[in-house]
Amino acid sequence: MNITRRHLLLLLPAAGVAWKYILAGTPEAAPNYRLSDHWWGMLIDLPKCIGCGNCVRACQAENDIPDGYFRTWVERYHVSDYDIENPQVDSPDGGKRGFPPVKNAEGKNFFVPKLCNHCAESPCTQVCPVGATFVSPDGVVLVDKEYCLGCRYCVQACPYGCRFINPKTNTAEKCTLCYHRITKGLTTACCESCPTGARQLADLKDPADPIHEFLKTHSVHVLKPSMATHAKVFYNELDGAVR
Amino acid sequence: MTGIDGFMYPNEVELQWSVLIVLYPFLTGLVAGAFILASLERVFQVQAVKPTYRLALLTALSFLLVSPLPLQLHLGHPERSYEMYLTPHRTSAMAMFGFVYLWYLMAVLVLEIWLDYRREIVLLSQSTVGWKRAIYRVLTLGSTNISERALAIDEKAGWLITVIGIPSAFLLHGYVGFIFGSVKANPWWSTPLMPVVFIFSAMVSGIALVMLLYMLMMWARRQTIDMECLDTVARYLFYIFLIDFSLEMLDLIHRIYEADDSFRSLDFMVHTKLYFSHIVVQIALGTIAPITLLALTQVIKISAVLRKRTYVAAGCLTLLGIFAMRWNVVIGGQLFSKSFLGYTTYKMGLVTREGLLMAIVLTVLPFAILWVLVKVLPPWPARESDSLPSVTMAH
C-alpha cells in the first residue's frame, strides 16, 4: 500500500493518540516539582493519636499492601508505674482495626504510630549490595523495584523493623512517604486520613512549614537516637519506654 | 499469633534469612579452613601434614564451587544477581562478595591447584586415551613444558600464591563475619569480634573436615593412615579450637558483664528458644566435648587405634558444633525483636526453595564434586603398579 500525503495526515493524529496511551503507563510528570527545594520528614504528635487505625488502612489501600505486611502501623504501649523500662506493647494486625479495650487501668497507655524514619544516614541504604535503595535528593528513602535483588540485607539492617519483602514482587518494600503524592503537592495518605492531625507531613526546607515553629516550642525526639541514623520522623512527647 | 512470644514489630514476624544462609558461612568456613591447613605445609613447612595437602586444596575447591548457591537460591530475584558485579554499591559489605569470591576462586585456589598438578596433568595427557586424554589435554591449557626449570618456576609461583592465599582466606571468611558483625541494628550480631570468631571457627571446621576426609579416603583405599600426619593435624585442630573457644567465651563474658539494653532479651532467648542449639549442641557437644577429646590425646598416651577413633568422634562433633554456631548466629539473630520485647519462631520448610531438602542437597553436593575431582586429580602419590611414565616431553 502506498502511503500518500492524505493518508499520512489521517494517520498522524491516530498515532499521536496511540502514543498517548503508551505513555499512560509511565508515571505522571510533576513539572513544577524541584527535588532540591524539599527535605521531607514527618511529625507525629503523640498526644493526639487515638489509635483508630485510619492511617494503616489508608496506607494499605493507597499503596496496595498485602495483608500481614505494613508500611505503617500503630503500637499501643502500657507502661506500669512499677516497671517503666519494660512496657507491654501490642499491635493487633498493625492496629489496622483499632485496639480492644485496655484491661489494666494501672499505669499509663498511649499509642505510637510507626513508619520508615527516612533516615538521612540510613543503615538500609548503606548495606544494599546494588544501590537499589537510596535516599532521594529530597530526603525520602526509596526502593527501585526493578533493580532490587531481594537479598533482604536491608530488612536486617533497619533498626525500626520498617521493611519487608513484598510477596508479590519479591523485592524489599517500605514507606515511600507517598512519594507519588507529595511530589504533586499532596500530603501522604496516612496524614490525610488522620482524624486528629496527629500525623503531619513536614518539609524541612520550606521556611514557612509549621514544623519549624513546632520543633522550637515542643519536646520532640526521634526513635532510637543511639542508632545515629539522623531519623526524620519526629515524635512529640515521646515516652522513654518507646522502642 | 502462633510462634510469637511478647511483642514483635509486625514486619519482624517472618524470618528473612533461612537455613540456606546458615549453610553459606558454614560452607565458606570449610573452604577457608581447608586452605589454611594446606598452607601449613606449603608456607609454614609443616612437613608432617603433607599427605593432606592436595586433599585440602581439592576440598576447598569443592566447597567453594557450591558456596554461592545458597545465596543465589535465597535471592528474591536470582536473575539480577549479576548486578552485584556490574553496579556494586561501594558502601555495602555484601556487594564485595562477588569480587572476594572470584578472587579467591580464580586467583588463588584454581591457580594453585593447577600449578601443583601441572606435571601430573601433562603426563596423564600423554599416558591416557580417549575422553580422559581429551580432558587432561584441556587441563594442560596448552602448557606442556615440564622440564625441571619449568617445574621449579611452578613451585615458586605456587608458594607465592599460597602466601597471597592465606590473607585471602582470612579475607574470604573474615568478610563473611563482617556481613553480620557490621549490622548495628542487631545486637546479637554487632560485634567487632564477629569476623575474628568467624575466621577461627572456619579454620577449626576446615581442619576437622580434611582430617575426617583423609581418614575416610585412606580407609576406602585400604591404605595405612600416616599417624604422624594425623596427630599433627589433630594437634593444630586442638590449638586453634582453643583460641576459637576463648574468643567466643570472651564475647560471651563481655556481653554478660556489660549487660546493655539488649542483654535481658538475648539472655532470655539463649535460655529458651536457643537453649538446645546454643548451650547443648554448640557449646557442650560441639565445643567442650571435642576439645576434651583432643586434649586427652595430647596428655594421655593411647594406642593408634583409639587415637583414630577419638579423632573421628572429635572431628564429627566439631563440624556439628561449628554448624550449630552458624545456625545460632544466623537464625538466633532473627528470633528476637529489635524492640527487645518479644520473640518469634523459625519454621523451616521441607521441600521449599529454601527448605531442609535443598539444604541437604547443597551439603552433599560438595562431596560429589570432591569425588569427581579426586578421580580426575588424585591427591595422593601414584602407586607403584600404576606409576606415571617418565618425563618424555622436556623442552
Give the SSE order of chain B as H and E letters: EHHHHHHHHHHHHHEH
Please count the helical segments of chain B: 14
Question: Order of helices and strands of chain A, N to C?
Answer: HEHEEEHEEHEEHHEHEE
- Secondary-structure content class of chain B: mainly alpha
Tell me the number of strands of chain A: 11
Sheet of most strands of chain A: 4 strands, mixed
Q: Helix content range of the residues of chain B, please?
A: 55-70%
User: What proportion of the residues of chain B form beta strands (DSSP E)?
Assistant: under 5%
CATH class of the largest domain in chain A: Alpha Beta
| Biggest sheet: strand arrangement of chain B | 1-2
Oligomer state equals heterodimer
Please summarize the sheet with the most strands of chain B. 2 strands, antiparallel
Distance between the termini of chain B: 75 Å
So, CATH architecture of the largest domain in chain A? Answer: 2-Layer Sandwich
CATH T-level topology of the largest domain in chain A: Alpha-Beta Plaits
User: Which chains share the greatest interface?
Assistant: A-B, 45 and 40 residues
Describe the protein's architecture and organization:
The complex is a heterodimer of chains A (243) and B (395). Chain A is α+β, with helices and mostly antiparallel strands and 243 residues long. Chain A has 2 domains: 40-119 and 176-236, Alpha-Beta Plaits (2-Layer Sandwich); 123-172, Alpha-Beta Plaits, CATH 3.30.70.20. Chain A contains 7 helices and 11 strands. In chain A, the strands form 4 sheets. Chain A has a 4-stranded mixed beta sheet. In chain A, strands 3-2-4 form a 3-stranded antiparallel beta sheet, covered by helices on one side. In chain A, strands 5-6 form a two-stranded antiparallel sheet. The longest helix of chain A has 19 residues, at 5-23. Chain B has one domain (5-376). Chain B has helices at 19-42, 53-66, 68-74, 83-86, 97-127, 130-140, 148-181, 193-220, 227-258, 263-271, 275-299, 304-330, 332-335, 356-376; strands at 5-6, 342-343. In chain B, α5 packs antiparallel against α7 (148-181). The chains are: A alpha+beta (243), B mainly alpha (395). Chain A binds chain B through residues 68-70, 73, 75, 86-91, 93-94, 114, 123, 125-131, 147-153, 155-165, 169-171, 227, 243, and chain B through 7-14, 16-17, 71, 74-77, 80-81, 83-84, 87-89, 91-95, 97, 179, 183-186, 333-334, 337-341.
